[in-house]
Amino acid sequence: MDAADTVEEAVAALLTRMAPLLAASRDHAQKLDAEGVFASDDLAALTRAGILAAAVPTLMGGLGIGTEPARAVATAELLHSVGSGSIALGRIIEGHINAVRLVIRNGNEAQRVATAEDARAGHLHALWVTDGPEALRYIHIANGIELSGEKLFCSAAGHATRAVVTAMGPDGERRLLLLTMRQGEEIHHLPAGLQGVRSAGTGRVVFNGVRHGSATIFGAPGAYLREPEFSAGAWRASAVTAGALSALVDAARAELVSRNRAANPEQRQRLGRMYINAETARLWTLGACSFGEDADAKAERATAMVNLARIAIEAACMDTIQLVQRSLGLSAFVQANPVERMCRDLATYLRQPAPDEALSEAAAYFTDHPLIAGWD
């Protein structure tokens, strides 16, 4: 048995260990949403199963989930599975994978080794890039840097023990920082809570006066927005979305069956469209993961295909939400019904940045490149 077979078996074993934990997270999601409580217990169970360590490259003791092209399909399957259990957990895990990936691709050897060791030890990494009214900045001081400003929409705020953030330096360049948390930063609730994904612990983090060593800076200026990595990597959020969509369709089906309404011809028509949408999202995810992980080789094509996938999955989700609400009627708007939360979570998570720009750029690429050639 070669090394590749061993890794594949380890990935399969991880997915098997995760299955009952994700079923449990689906059961817990309703209570966590109602209370606006972070999914600590569910995340701890997944951490013990090895999900955080899985993002570490194979040569550094992990499984390469999200960090190696050979694990593209496995990454899609993992994120789809997590999203089907809890979209809030999906947001947290996807952020962890993205943060680890950024350090592995842009950090120096010491930073890469430290991040791999931390992830294997169960440290949750967050990725926070949206600035608040006072943008995050740093200045150089003796033996390190001092931060000022804040980040908004920070998933796992107060729970992540490591965070990758973007910050403006004294030279006006935006850099990546790898921060050890609980060094004096302030965690605040958002001024107004999010409508959905309420158990992801999304908050505001203020870093005024917080100091770190200079080794926290990594990567070249502007590395976070470097293409094609920035746009092509959007497929991982789409994988979470597709998983959540499949769970919503299954929940709607189960309710129609329990109410003896599934045999109605109109309901079957709507269910049929829901199944089409869920499978469309799944297939676009699989296509996008292959293109996205091959981004360095064929950058423009990869970005265009991932952008198309992102918009196709969004459209499938929005159509399904409408179909579910029409099928179930007022039941879909009762807060005690998990379907109400699932629709709300999905609609909130879909609000990724610049969808119009993503579609326009993809269309521009295929204006000059026939679509059929794009699959070569």
Explain what this protein looks like in three dimensions.
There is one protein chain. This protein is of the alpha+beta class. The protein has three domains: 3-124, Butyryl-Coa Dehydrogenase, subunit A, domain 1; 127-224, Butyryl-CoA Dehydrogenase, subunit A, domain 2; 227-375, Up-down Bundle (Butyryl-CoA Dehydrogenase, subunit A, domain 3), CATH 1.20.140. It has helices at residues 3-35, 40-49, 72-85, 87-106, 109-120, 229-232, 235-258, 265-293, 299-328, 338-349, 355-368; strands at residues 125-128, 137-141, 144-148, 150-154, 162-168, 174-180, 186-189, 203-206, 211-213, 217-218. A four-stranded mixed sheet has the order 1-5-6-10. Helix 7 runs antiparallel to helix 10.
Radius of gyration: 21 Å
Mean pLDDT: 91
Helix content: 40-55%
Counted up, domains total: 3
Number of strands: 10
| Uncertain stretches | none
SS content category: alpha+beta
Question: What is the CATH C level class of the largest domain, in words?
Answer: Mainly Alpha
Biggest sheet features: 4 strands, mixed
Number of helices: 11
Strand order of the largest sheet: 1-5-6-10
- Portion of residues in beta strands equals 5-15%
Shape: globular
Ends distance: 31 Å
Q: At the third CATH level, what is the topology name of the largest domain?
A: Butyryl-CoA Dehydrogenase, subunit A, domain 3
